[in-house]
Amino acid sequence: MADPSTKVWATTTTASLTIEELARIIIHLDSEAQALLISLMAEHATFSVPMQLAYVSAEPGLTPKGKSLMRLIGDYADPDAGEAQR
Are residues 52 and 20 part of one domain? Predict the structure, then answer.
């Protein structure tokens, strides 16, 4: 299997994306690409991730569905906790 970090996920042309477009792209990535994305986000985090998550949780723009997704990601990060949800 090819190294997923070398796969071209976008064209080489410069493009502007809205947050909605970016969300649609990320949610439709396959599981391997989503795992790589999350891992790379963790590697590039140069700030307190718990503090950033607290800020995000307090944002008025975070919808109930958004909070639910955050919970699901946390639940499924722990296979034992996530198993109860499946």
Answer: no
Burial 6-33 (b: 16+ CB within 10 A, else e): eeeeeeeeeeeeeeeeeeeeeeeeeeeb
For the chain, how many structural domains are there in total?
Answer: 2
Helix (H) or strand (E) holding 83: helix 79-85
Helix (H, G, I), strand (E, B) or coil at 84: helix
Say if residues 32 and 4 touch (Cβ distance below 8 Å): yes
| Residue 19 vs residues 22, 25, 33, 47, 60: alpha-carbon distances, Å | 5, 10, 19, 21, 16
* pLDDT tens-digit readout, 41-78: 999 998 898 999 999 999 999 999 999 999 999 888 88
The model's pTM: 0.67
The whole domain housing 53 covers 47-86
